[in-house]
Amino acid sequence: MKLATVVFEGRQGVAEITVPAGERLLYCGLRHGLNLGHECASGTCGTCKAMLVSGQVGSLWPEAPGNRYVRPERDEFLMCQAIAESDVHVKVRPAVPAPVDLPVPGILQGVIRKYENLTSDVAQFELKLSQPVRFLAGQFITVNIDGIAGYRAYSMTSYSPRATDALSFVVKRIAGGKFTEWLFTGDRDGAAVTGFGPLGRAVFAPDKDGSIIALAGGSGIAGIMAILRHASDSGHLEQYEAQLVFGLNRPQDVFFLGTLNELAAKHSNLRVVIALVDINESDALQQQFPELEFEQGYLHEISRMKLQNLDEVTTAFLAGPPVAVDAAREMLIKDKGFSARKMRFDRFG
Ligand SMILES: Cc1cc2nc3c(=O)[nH]c(=O)nc-3n(C[C@H](O)[C@H](O)[C@H](O)COP(=O)(O)OP(=O)(O)OC[C@H]3O[C@@H](n4cnc5c(N)ncnc54)[C@H](O)[C@@H]3O)c2cc1C
Ligand code: FES
């Protein structure tokens, strides 16, 4: 079957869309501007679950971890992994409202360039796109390469107020991970990538946000870098405070500290604390990056100790591995009485 008709039925109405063979229902619906619930867009979170009313859908990844949130006896399935195998009718849930209107995502084509290792297991690269794309600080895209099944989500570290054909990323190597092992074990400059995006609601909205805090674990700093760049360029940091706690393991794992040091030197309203689990060489780091504070401990512990004036904070951004994000979220709610409604987060898994 080359094309299928998919009826998306939600509380906000009904839309009928023609889906090309093999396209994920979530991506097709989002591409047509539908407001469909989703978070990771890559099979882990379960947020995109929908209910099949009629017709047949197939799963591109039956073992997707997000399936633990799905009840097959109720004909539920993950839209980010589903393709239409006939004309179908599905019931969908709306997405959590975003603080601003989001750009409509689309299919992206690009090539990797400017690949550079930042540490033994962290690298940055740029994706040169065939068409410019507009995105908001804090958003991500999903990427796929030939030979590796599925899409992986990566947040842009760069920010541009206009549509751009160059997106920057920082990626942590995961032992045994298919995409990251591929990325780190060969010359990838020029490699072709298919993507989808921009996606993500954990975006910075300078007109609505005031003082902000950001808690980033490891490569979770990616989208936060874009947010700080936007806050710096837009003059937001002249008016409001920003506090960042960036959690890393050891001194040899640090990256982006030069850029953060420059931003902190430029803006007296920006405070940056680096939380290192193992800190034996902190004196050398302190000398090299005098605008940053270094503390020993886990992200949530140091955040509990160092974050100030939370009453004035309108928005908290949390990003990184699920264990770090969940601990930071719980600390903010339980120990600081911070409202969950003021949090925007990206769990990297
Ligand atoms: C919103 C978001 C933003 C993220 N941003 C970043 C970032 O900026 N930097 C960073 O380093 N990491 C980021 N991640 C994590 C990243 O998406 C990957 O999970 C990570 O890089 C590991 O990928 P891997 O292929 O090496 O590992 P793998 O374990 O091989 O795969 C990890 C992920 O790929 C997908 N996947 C795996 N196998 C399949 C399959 N057979 N079919 C379909 N899908 C499959 C799943 O989503 C799975 O969780 C982000 C994650 C999310 C959800
Ligand atoms: S959006 Fe489909 S599982 Fe996360």
Explain this structure.
By secondary structure, this protein is of the alpha/beta class. The chain has 3 domains: 3-91, Ubiquitin-like (UB roll) (Roll); 106-199, Elongation Factor Tu (Ef-tu), domain 3 (Beta Barrel); 211-347, Nucleotide-binding domain of ferredoxin-NADP reductase (FNR) module (Rossmann fold), CATH 3.40.50. Helix content is 20%, strand content 35%. The chain has helices at 25-31, 178-184, 221-233, 236-239, 257-266, 282-288, 299-306, 322-334, and strands at 3-10, 13-20, 49-54, 57-59, 76-78, 82-84, 88-91, 106-117, 122-133, 140-144, 152-155, 164-172, 192-199, 211-217, 242-248, 270-276, 293-296, 313-320, 343-347. It has a 6-stranded antiparallel sheet with strand order 11-10-13-8-9-12. It has a 6-stranded parallel sheet with strand order 17-16-15-14-18-19, with helices on both faces. Helix 7 packs parallel to helix 8 (322-334). It is globular. The structure holds flavin-adenine dinucleotide and FE2/S2 (inorganic) cluster. Residues 38-41, 43-48, 66, 78, 80 line the site of FE2/S2 (inorganic) cluster.
Q: How do the strands and helices of this protein lay out in sequence?
A:
Elements: E1 3-10, E2 13-20, H1 25-31, E3 49-54, E4 57-59, E5 76-78, E6 82-84, E7 88-91, E8 106-117, E9 122-133, E10 140-144, E11 152-155, E12 164-172, H2 178-184, E13 192-199, E14 211-217, H3 221-233, H4 236-239, E15 242-248, H5 257-266, E16 270-276, H6 282-288, E17 293-296, H7 299-306, E18 313-320, H8 322-334, E19 343-347
Parallel strand pairs: 1-7, 14-15, 14-18, 15-16, 16-17, 18-19
Antiparallel strand pairs: 1-2, 3-5, 3-7, 4-6, 8-9, 8-13, 9-12, 10-11, 10-13
Helix pairs in contact: 7-8
